[in-house]
Amino acid sequence: DADVTQTPRNRITKTGKRIMLECSQTKGHDRMYWYRQDPGLGLRLIYYSFDVKDINKGEISDGYSVSRQAQAKFSLSLESAIPNQTALYFCATSLGTGELFFGEGSRLTVL
Amino acid sequence: GQQLNQSPQSMFIQEGEDVSMNCTSSSIFNTWLWYKQEPGEGPVLLIALYKAGELTSNGRLTAQFGITRKDSFLNISASIPSDVGIYFCAGPKSNTGNQFYFGTGTSLTVIP
Question: B99 and A59 in contact by Cβ < 8 A?
């Protein structure tokens, strides 16, 4: 089983719908991150959390929200999805040493 | 926001050739990381660099931390088909340490 699991792996939705992407980890790491990947733009940080009570905005947090339900769970929500949020989304964890451990990604398409 | 620029954006090379790519930043980094992303997967760490001027190898991969702390280089020697993927540089901005910024990526294709 993967150490960092993302669900769903693929999702197609319509403009205006609320979407939640979930991430769970078995690595025991306190730090969790959400990134989005777009061709030619690399990975951009959306939100990150260092523990259950800590939530921080990244580079591109507008239009997104997150919830850290437990040490092992960090979910990303799009309250009202729009087409330019079509992207590949990655959850990652870290011990704080510099290495990030990524999930397999969630591909979201907003029509 | 912070942006790390990688070049080249893409490379098509013959198996056996050496590969060089680099990453530049407008800000100082105190750590440089190099990741590889294979199709359908998340990025995986290849090499971590923690000191300006540092040169570190991992098998056929060698990475260097630029002395200005604003750039880093990755070389792959004697490329093989399984080297195919997207290579990303990354690092925490020195005055935050908490946010990891990623480069725009270099897509590598190895032709057998």
Answer: yes
Q: In chain B, which residue's Cα lies nearest the Cα of A46?
A: B99
How many secondary structure helices (H) and strands (E) does chain A include? 0, 11
Question: Are residues A100 and B100, on separate chains, in Cβ contact within 8 Å?
Answer: yes
Inspect the interface and report whether the beta carbons of B6 and A92 lie closer than 8 Å: no
**Considering CB atoms only, which of B1, B4, B42 is closest to A102?**
B42
User: Residue A86: beta bridge partners?
Assistant: none
% of chain A surpassing 90 pLDDT? 88
Burial pattern A18-36, b for ≥16 Cβ within 10 A else e, equals ebebbbbbeeebebbbbbb
Which two three-digit tokens encode residue A71?
């040490």
Q: What is the pLDDT of residue B28?
A: 86
Per-residue confidence (pLDDT) for residue A23, from 0 to 100 = 98
What is the C-alpha to C-alpha distance for residues A42 and B107, in angstroms, rounded to an integer?
A: 11
What's the Cα-to-Cα distance from A34 to each of A12, A59, A105, B102, rounded to whole Å? 19, 11, 10, 13
Contact yes or no for B25/B71 (Cβ under 8 A): yes
Sheet holding A65-70, edge to edge: A4-7, A19-25, A73-78, A65-70
